[in-house]
Amino acid sequence: MPGASTGGFSPIDDCVDFPCLLPSFVSVNQTPPCTRYIRCTVEYDGAQFAGSQLQPDVPTVQGTIETALARLFDGPVRISAAGRTDAGVHATAQEVAFAVPDRWTPGSLLKSLASVLPREVGIVALREAEPDFHPRFSATGRRYEYFVGDRAAALSPLRAGRIWQLGRPIPIASLRSASTALLGPGDFTALSRSGQPERGTRCTIERATWIRTPVGDLRFEIVADRFLHRMVRYVVAVLVEIATESRAEDELRALLSGGGKATPPRPAPPEGLYLTGVRYGDGWNRRSGVPGLWPLATDRQQAVSRPD
Questions:
Q1: What's the mean pLDDT in 217-228?
Q2: CA 284 to CA 278: how far, in whole Å?
Q3: Phi, psi (5° rounding) for residue 111?
Q4: Catalytic: 187?
């Protein structure tokens, strides 16, 4: 099963930075065979995976990439990532990093990795990274986009797995009005499945906007310093409820303050959600947008950002 955990691999938290595992025949006192550090921007079809993080006996994005790298390096590899996505959630700009044998250049690795990865996973950009770079801890912001099909045409089976196929009209003005309550710092305990005990449940929202796309879908773009588990899906669900008048707008403020008697919604479906950017000191790793849903200004032919 592609991407499933095999051999000595076991589930790990993606914040653990152990990018290169030494073969058993190499002494810990020897020079490690991996001396070049690489970061790359990855896109994937989340419908094919049980999530991005490694899990036993199921296909995952991490498992798929690690298996491909292991084939190239003739030994096990561990990658670190900017964050985790759930089963069914897509990405155009997940950032991962790992150590590679010194003989590999960014150009040769890009070409070889593309040849062994399945069609569901693509490398958008690949370059050398500083030794202290970490996809998660070096990030200063993340961007998600969510697509809602609120027109009858969105119910076509040909659009399944790419958007929330709601099929009933939603006033975009109401979505925009409700979204203003999200801006700034807030406690998202009630709008997430779980937080991180060491970092709490507060997040700062920098941007929360709705537009109508050329194909007629509703596109929600949200940027924050960090996101909690399923947070965007809960946020989209409550905004849709407010816009369709099945929930009062002041309930969102109650949910964000942790007070009142507001009941959290069920999360919006995963298939409408895309991780479309991670921000670092040098800017976003990819421009916003999703191929086929919203214009994306990224030239895939310019994937290697530095010559060999």
A1: 97
A2: 6
A3: -65, -45
A4: no
* Res 259: pLDDT: 58
pLDDT at residue 136, rounded to an integer: 96
Its pTM surpasses 0.90: no
Please, are residues 40 and 125 in contact by the beta-carbon 8 Å criterion? yes
* Positions of CATH 3.30.70.660 in the chain: 141-282
- Cβ neighbourhood burial of 207 (10 Å; 0-12, 13-18, 19+): middle
Alpha carbon dihedral 78, 82, 87, 91, in 10-degree steps, equals -110
What distance in Å separates the CA atoms of residue 295 and residue 93, rounded to the nearest whole number? 15
* 34-137 maps to CATH 3.30.70.580: yes
Structure tokens at 304: 């290697």
Nearest alpha carbon to residue 38 among 79, 94, 10, 5: 79
Token digits of residue 236: 């989209």
Q: What tokens does 217 get? A: 């879908």
3-state secondary structure of 207: strand
In the chain, ranges of CATH 3.30.70.580 domains? 34-137
Q: Which of 14, 86, 150, 217 is catalytic?
A: 86
